[in-house]
Amino acid sequence: MSRRLIRLDIPVFPDRRMFRVHDATVDPDAPGGPLAPLGALISVNREQIWVGSLQEHIGARLFLEEWDIAPPPYGDEWEDEAKAVIYFRGALSVDMGSAGRAVDRLQLAGGVGDYVVRVFARNRREVNRLYNELFERGVDPLSDEFQQARDALEGHEQYLMQLWREG
Question: What is the pTM assigned to this prediction?
Fold first, then answer.
């Protein structure tokens, strides 16, 4: 039976329509990083996973979980799913580009090695659509109405990232 070792609920801000989870020793902006996940859920290389949002104006939520072995399937409550294998040297960081790091050097219970990473997303398309509708309705971006509608969307876009040491 699988056991969850770590669970964090992290607010993230998609910079350039993405946020990045990577080995804590890696510079996510260094040459050789993955291509931007334009329209896709993820883009990966050996030590980084870039998670794609469809917008860059509203904060999202990331639920990050480390498991001792593969967790049970989640079912239909998530709209998108992707999977990859990433190498971590015992710690990871969550980077939001110009917004800074949401997590810096989280120690992994599984230590150094290859990790299977499963990423789920929900409400990516809905948040993008609702934000664009504000402009289509002609709402002034400096108005209280716009700010209240924008604030109501904060955290509605959600991601679940589960990781565990590859067997």
Answer: 0.92
Share of the chain above pLDDT 90, in %: 78
| End-to-end Cα separation, the chain, in angstroms | 14
Q: Residue 159: in which H helix or E strand, if any?
A: strand 158-165
Number of domains present in the structure of the chain: 1
User: Using CA atoms, how far apart are residues 165 and 136, in angstroms rounded to an integer?
Assistant: 46
98, part of any domain: yes
What number is the average pLDDT over the span 35-57?
93
What is the Cα–Cα distance from 96 to 153, expressed in whole angstroms?
18
Contact 53, 18 (CB under 8 A): yes
pLDDT tens for 96-144 read: 999 999 999 999 999 999 999 999 999 999 998 998 888 888 888 899 9
**CATH number, residue 13:** 2.60.34.30
- Classify residue 139: in a domain, yes or no: no
| Structural domain containing residue 26 | 4-123+155-165
